[in-house]
Amino acid sequence: MSHEAHEIEEPSTPHLDFEGTTPYEDYVKADVLTHLQSTLSDDPGEMVFLVTTQVMELWFTVIVHEWETAARALRSDDVPVAIDALKRSVRELEALNASWKPLGQLTPAQFNSYRAALGEGSGFQSAMYRRMEFLLGEKSASMLVPHRGAPRVHAELEKALHEPSLYDEVLRLMARRGHAIPQTVLSRDVAQRYVPSAEVEAAWTAVYSGDAGDEVARLGEALTDVAELVWRWRNDHLVATRRAMGAKAGTGGSAGVAWLEKRAQKNVFPELWTARSHV
To answer: Kind and range of the H or E element at 156?
Structure first.
């Protein structure tokens, strides 16, 4: 082997000397992320609870980004881009749901050891999670109230409240494609929670009774994948909470398990599920 060939095969030495922080730090902001953990108790288990909750917030952020990307694409009749964003969000939802693993084994005694540190804090106060719910059509003006003291966050939530949900954009696209979506659904007040429609169910029944390769049918399956994982998220949340605190009232004055049980019974994109009984 020649000397030149030997030199080419040798691994190059990474660049280690930088004027300031590393390019990795400049991009990822790892030092910021890893210094955002301020535990409020002496219990060693609080750190995993805090970090896992922060990780969930990051996943909420990227999923909101994907669903907003999908909604914009649907407004432009670009179904492939919308489907791609929804498929990415499925992988992200899987990672989000896996976040329950570190918390899912908490005993009541373990949770109680730092529960008091939460004070009035509760997951339902998460603004980014609320934006996720709004995109799913779960609108509620009252959920803006906790954020009145944070003007930027409140403004972003108010904007999301009055914008069409992801499902609204899907139904508008279906109407443009000739599907029988009633005008009452198309012109509904999008700041209100979506209410299932028999006519929309019939439209999805027609879609699923036709060509499985149809673009709208493929969009429907991507939405169903999302809906299934949202349902799993709600159920995992319910189980983890029931295991950690039983039927006691939740933090922040929430109803705890009772409220989560009601949420777990609700289907996202409801007619996508009920239409299957008629195909």
So the answer is: helix 151-161
Q: Which two tokens stand for residue 176?
A: 């443009």
Question: Alpha-carbon distance 21 to 215, whole Å?
Answer: 47
DSSP label at residue 100: T
What is the tens place of the pLDDT at every residue in 210-255? 987 899 999 999 999 999 999 999 999 888 888 888 877 666 566 6
194: which DSSP letter? Answer: P
What own/partner pairs with CB < 8 Å and gap ≥ 24 does 77-82 have? 77/173, 77/176, 79/173, 79/215, 79/216, 79/218, 79/219, 80/215, 82/219, 82/222
pTM for this one? 0.89
Query: What span, in angstroms and rounded, lies between the C-alpha atoms of 54 and 37?
Result: 9
171 backbone φψ class: left, alpha, beta (φ>0; ψ -120 to 50): alpha
Is residue 206 within 8 A of residue 179, CB to CB? The reply is yes
C-alpha span between 133 and 129 (Å, rounded): 6
